[in-house]
Amino acid sequence: MTKECVFFLEITRQEDPALSYSQEWICKLDSADAYGNKYTDASLNLKDVQLDEAGIDREGRQVLVSGETILKPGNELSSGIIKISSGSIPQISRRIHVVHNNLRSKKRQTQTEARPNDEKKELSVLAVRVIDKLDEETDVSTDELSDSIFGTYGDDVNLKSQISACSYDSVTIVPAVSKKGKNNIKNGVITVSINSIVSGSDVKTIQSDVSNALSEELGGCELPCSYDHIMYCFPRGARRNMSYMWTAYAGVHKWYSVYNGMPDGGNYCELAPVQMHEIGHNWGLSHSGDIDDEVYGDGSGVMGNREKQRRYDGPVSCYNGPKSWKLGWYSDRHETIDPSKLSKDGQVINMIGLANYENSISTDKVIVQITNLPFGNDEMIPTDYYIVFNRKVGINWETQEGGDKVVITKRIAGQGYSDSKIVAILGAKSKFYIRSRNTSKEFLLIRVDRINIYKDSPAKAIVTIKLKKEKVSDNSSISTLQTSTSTEPKNDLNRDGGFRTSIPYDLCGILIPIKKSECPDKFDYENCKDVAYGELCEADDNQCGTSYSENNCIGYDMYRKKECKDHNTKRCAKLTDENKDNRCKKRRYRYSCSICCSN
Ligand SMILES: [Zn+2]
């Protein structure tokens, strides 16, 4: 190789979500190294450079960054594969480090790569139809394609409409227009003819042929020719790594995405969630998994792939917590929590869904990021956690997982390209612990105190985040710790309620049944573990040592919560280790002496 090349990650989605997806590192060759062809890529054998498929080395360092890492000249090239000479890593160097933060910033970008960091507000998209040598063509007309991407003729859910909705118009997708003196783009769609046959060919060859034809059609400019994204909508029949059953693929931090024809007609180019997913890759977003399916299982947003059914206009949802954070569309409703800086009482956060962002006030938060955990946590490499309230309404009304629940997701710390994974889905009154991997006794509690769908407008989830020290004498919280590490087997994730755990005694206080005369008219009281001392509450089952059958208020078990301390020092002085077991059974001791509290 005589010239340097830039690395890109290319990710292919398969038609069957059960099939593993594939990702490849390719290097865009200078035409001097590709017999004059501008649109030829070479691939890299990751084993040669001892990197995993995400481009991470054994120490967890991100060595390859899509769109940033360059390979210096001097390596050998053989049938499209780069042969790295001697150990290699010194030959790979990082270009300027770019922080990916905000799709809102107005800085203009260079036209060769679409990057979320320096995005402009309007992004032009060109969709490409193809006719091959045998007159096989993309099985969607220009008008249909334009309608399904831009809503040109009234289609109501498409790339343009949903990106506008999810970004609250921070990003507007606009149809590409013809170059000066030309009239070959109609409503954002162009048709190009190639001199090769799609059926049976390798799709990368077809992509290269279409790129050359397209560049010529556009007047000889270098792609993407001042457009931001190019969507290649191919007739079905090309192979992608030996398989015909691919859906689409896209370059990460790149401008292109490529879509296959569907088996029964039509093209994956037309499907709104697939469009958003592939353009998401262009913006540097990676896949979203959950505990069942590490790569694609996250159904809360479009970077997972749980939908087996093909639908043109849904499911209607946006991007999950970590992806949305990176896109920055709700950044004035972000909250970063550094656990080491939390006060003793922790922090209580009013969370709203991204679908209600427009109606939020400054104390409402859409995404909480937990970063810089003071202890190692479960992971081998630094990990950040994200919390969202996945309100299932409006622009997110068809979210496929964790709807109206609090969803906790983790990813490698920072904003680089990294898969995310759901670690817990929490209903009201449930909690999740992030615990230390080492022997430290600290852990971080994330507790959903309340979810008010109808009481509050917009609907809110009240979440408490608190750093806690493990109490050795407190069996309930020790058993809690053991069942909620972050590497737990899937059985521990209760899809409806997340991790349901027993309640540590320090949340119980002393619960005193109220008199019948004190019973309220309405019984929608909070659970006893969630209320402050002095408040009325309701106890479920026999939690916190209460009785199943107090039934003091017409069938409900109502209590007043008191702090566990000595309220009658004279009486409590009569208690000793020997007699406390018996005496604490009596209410007058139990409700007034701290020595009885943990019984
Ligand atoms: Zn993908």
Task: List the keywords.
599 residues, Collagenase (Catalytic Domain), 4 domains, six-stranded mixed β-sheet, 13% helix, 24% strand, binds zinc ion
Short note summarizing the structure:
This protein has 599 residues and is an alpha/beta fold. It has ten helices and 27 strands. About 11% of the residues have low confidence.
Notes on the structure:
There is one protein chain. The chain is of the alpha/beta class. The chain has four domains: 5-94, no CATH class; 122-284, Collagenase (Catalytic Domain), CATH 3.40.390; 321-502, no CATH class; 506-596, no CATH class. 13% of the residues lie in helices and 24% in strands. It has helices spanning 46-49, 142-150, 159-166, 203-217, 272-282, 321-327, 475-483, 569-572, 580-583, 587-590; strands at 5-14, 22-28, 41-44, 69-71, 76-78, 81-83, 92-94, 122-131, 172-175, 189-193, 229-233, 246-251, 256-259, 288-289, 334-337, 347-351, 364-365, 367-370, 383-389, 406-412, 420-426, 430-435, 442-452, 460-469, 510-513, 536-538, 558-562. Strands 1, 2, 3, 4, 5, 6, 7, 8, 9, 10, 11, 12 and 13 form a 13-stranded mixed beta sheet that branches. A six-stranded mixed beta sheet has the order 14-21-20-19-18-15, with helices on one face. A five-stranded mixed beta sheet has the order 17-16-24-23-22, with no helix packed on it. A hairpin with a 2-residue loop joins strand 5 (76-78) and strand 6. The longest helix is centred in the middle third of the chain and has 15 residues, at 203-217. The termini are far apart. It binds zinc ion. Zinc ion is lined by residues 11, 13, 277, 281, 287.
